[in-house]
UniProtKB/TrEMBL annotation:
Name of protein: Cupin domain-containing protein
Pfam families: Cupin_2 (PF07883)
Signal peptide: none
Domain Cupin type-2 per the UniProt entry, residue ranges: 60-119
Lineage: Bacteria, Bacillati, Actinomycetota, Actinomycetes, Kitasatosporales
Superkingdom, natural source: Bacteria
InterPro entries: Cupin_2 (IPR013096), QDO-like (IPR053146), RmlC-like_jellyroll (IPR014710), RmlC_Cupin_sf (IPR011051)
Amino acid sequence: MTMEYATRYRNASRIPADPGRPYVIEQGEGDRAHLFGDLITVYAGGEQTENTFNFFTVEGPKGDIIPAHLHTDTHEVFYVTQGAVRLFAEGPDGKQLERTLTPGDFGFVPKNCPHAYRMERHHTRIVGVAAGPGGTFERFFETLGTPTEQLGLPQRPCVPEPHEFADAAAAYDVRFLPGLRWRTA
């Protein structure tokens, strides 16, 4: 039996809207959205954690780099459980890091640090956690993407209109950096 909870983000959700209540979700059964060629599944968001952190997965095929961006109030974790991800990040000193993460590898990007990533292998899965004083950004994915009940990757990429990027980014602590170039190999 699947329980459906309404949240302020969705008419129906598989995760309870109120904090302080234990719950369990089977693999893949969180709130799902397609964005580009990826499937994003939220298991815990700001509404469950009083905006202290979120927990989500991103699954996708080998593909293009996710555009450079930063979060002014949010720290972000990348933990790879399947496939490979190339993580690009830049510290406050301007020094850039580029590393390929494989299952079991962990990457951390503090707030205000530009970063991007690219799936290096098909069937890649990242566990993401974001936390910070300004709240969480997990609803960015379904606001910019398309909420879905489908468990797998989208049949066709879900590409938002250009004006939608600015609206979603402003609402969810995402600042795109179109001029940033990675100097790493």
